[in-house]
Amino acid sequence: MARIYYVYYLLILIFCLISPPIYPQESNKKAEAKLHFEKGVNFMKEKNYDAALLEFQYAYELLPNPLVLFNIGMCLKEKLRYADAVGVFKRVISESGVSIDKGLKSDVEKIIGDLQNYVGYIVIEGDYPDARLYIDDTLIGNLPFKDPIPVDIGKHRLEVTREGYKKFERSIVVRSNEEIRIPILLERIVNYGRISISSSVPNAIIEIDNEKMGSGTVTANLPEGEHRINVMADGYREFSCIETIKPDQEKKVNAYLLPEPPPSKIEVKINTPKATLRLDGKEKTSPPISIWGVKSGTHTIEVKKEGMMPISANIDIQGGQEIYLDVELNKESHNLQKHWFWISLSLSIASYIGSLLYYINERDIYNNLENYSADRRERAIREGEDAKKMSTVLFFTGAGLTATTITLYFFTDFSPPKPSIYNIRFSNLNIQKPRDCYSQSVENMRVSGEGK
Question: Considering 91, 115, 139, which residue would you say is the last residue of a domain?
């Protein structure tokens, strides 16, 4: 330990000599940092480590220097804050870099090794942005934490706070070199209001958020926010609305149910026999057909027949209507596709052009035979014969493609396909407009208890 205390007295000199160059305008700051550093050393001699720690920390703030961190670490060690001391001593080595004195580095590494036996680690598992972690009432930082958090061995109290959530608290005991994993689960703070629902039909079923709550009249405590109200009774239209619940508020909802409108009738006529008719996915008898007892709402009618273009219609039925649906199915096109005609025509034209070019080349060769030497004349004659063959081949290829093109012309339908169509007629429309959702709110009503 003699060597360690020897370092205390040399740090003033080292601090002054190794400090970065100071410009004239920073001389006052350097002098003030040196003054606080000297005070810290004097306090350490007196074993007043609290005061020494404050002086060293202030000196480091004025003039950051890794050597000052050594004395800060020693103060923390003497105050039994081993985890903090280990972190500071590691900073001494990292901030000094390659310029650190070998003897000082050896001493720091030895101290770190000795203090590791007094340190454990806490691993925080949880990802709550902006949530704050406190250990023994000291703010550590905001979640999430990627690395384990070093702490002194012994008992510790953890707190995690986040706005809108209940405080997470846990007491733990950390042993030497132990790593404890703490899963963080925050519970949202829920404020409740009250809702009272009454129906104009005594035995109507009342649902809140698709959960059956009772019949006739229901009172429930609900968490703040939007909630869907459904009121149902046989022979009546369903009542549905969305109510917003606020804390300490009572809301009253009066649901007026209207009788279901009389069922509707759908009459379907199709221009071709043996077609298949489906209403909402269910197959009906072959048209023409009359479908009775169709309830109000949106229904899908599909008509299909092999070889015909199918048709599908969505019909909005409001009740008490007669709907007449006339369907005209048109045949699917079995003609060859248009692009085959155009491909054949293009190839035939290309063949004729190629044949013409080879013919011109052949004529040019024979017309210039007198200008060639004997050896060149023989090669020219062979080239002319080859050109003649190619011209003939391409000509007959073009002729064959022309015949194919003419054939495709008669079997290709160039007009766009005619789709199947339908026409809808409505009659006897007799619909009552449903009444709105009536509700009223009572403010400043204290609500107790949780749940529905």
Answer: 115
Token pair recorded at residue 240 = 């549905």
Strand order through the sheet with 119-125: 149-152, 119-125, 179-183
Length of the chain: 452
CA distance 256 to 85: 72
Element (H, E) at 150: strand 149-152
pLDDT band at 335 (very low <50, low <70, confident <90, very high): low
**Distance separating alpha carbons of residues 309 and 420, to the nearest angstrom:** 6
Residues 48 and 69 in one domain: yes
DSSP characters for 427-446?
Answer: E----PPPPPPEEEEE-S--
Q: How far apart are CA 155 and CA 153, in angstroms?
A: 7
Alpha helices in 280-373 (DSSP H): 338-367
Separation CA 10–CA 104 (nearest Å)? 11
Query: What pTM was estimated for this model as a whole?
Result: 0.44
Strands 264-270 and 322-328: parallel
Parallel, antiparallel, or unpaired: how do β-strands 311-317 and 217-223 relate? unpaired
What sign has the CA pseudo-torsion 380, 386, 387, 389? Answer: positive
Task: Provide the pairing of β-strand 168-174 with 154-161.
Answer: antiparallel
Task: Please check whether residues 10 and 110 belong to one and the same domain.
Answer: yes
Same domain, 22 and 106: yes
Q: Can you point out the beta strands (E) in 3-148? A: 119-125, 132-135, 138-142
Domain for residue 433, yes or no?
no
Roughly how many angstroms between the first and final C-alpha of the chain, as a whole number?
69
Fill in the DSSP letter of residue 285: P
Q: Are 260 and 232 contacting, i.e. CB atoms less than 8 angstroms apart?
A: no
Strand pairing report for 250-255 and 192-199: parallel
The whole-chain average pLDDT of the chain stands at 81
Model pLDDT for residues 144-200, shown as the tens digit of each residue: 888 889 999 999 999 999 988 999 999 999 999 889 999 999 988 888 899 999 999
